[in-house]
Write a structure and sequence with these properties.
155 residues, alpha+beta, Alpha-D-Glucose-1,6-Bisphosphate, Chain A, domain 4, 4 helices, START-like_dom_sf, ASHA1/2-like_C
Amino acid sequence: MKDTDRDLVLRRNIAASPAQIWKAWTTPRYLRQWFTPAPVKTVEAVIDPVPGGRFYTVMEMPDGTRQASEGCILLAEPHSRLVFTDGLTEGFRPTDGAFMTASIVLRPARGGTLYSAHVLHKSTKDRDAHDAMGFEEGWGKALSQLEALAQTIRN
């Protein structure tokens, strides 16, 4: 299952419960607050956390340009696992330009949650491009934003 030549991984212990993190991931008003690393903003978010559900975001760059991302939820196990892709849209309809599939796993851990993001790419070229865009720094900063927000959410 693991293909380390084409995957990127981010793991961290988070001082929030799996339930809090799940709400931050699956509630659009929360997702908009943390999903992109500042100063980039998420200005639109739609997520239907069921298999085949829509996952749509619009990022706004500091210069005002916007970038939309359309995807599909593949698997949603509340408080435990969320898998989504940009290779499909709502209802499992294929897209023209698949880039990645991400699996977010939440495991209870001492003081909170072990958070694992495993991002699969179709080629090493795509993996390298994602890494060059600042995967570790960008996803890491967004994860810190997620942690800060999740700590304020009631279970």
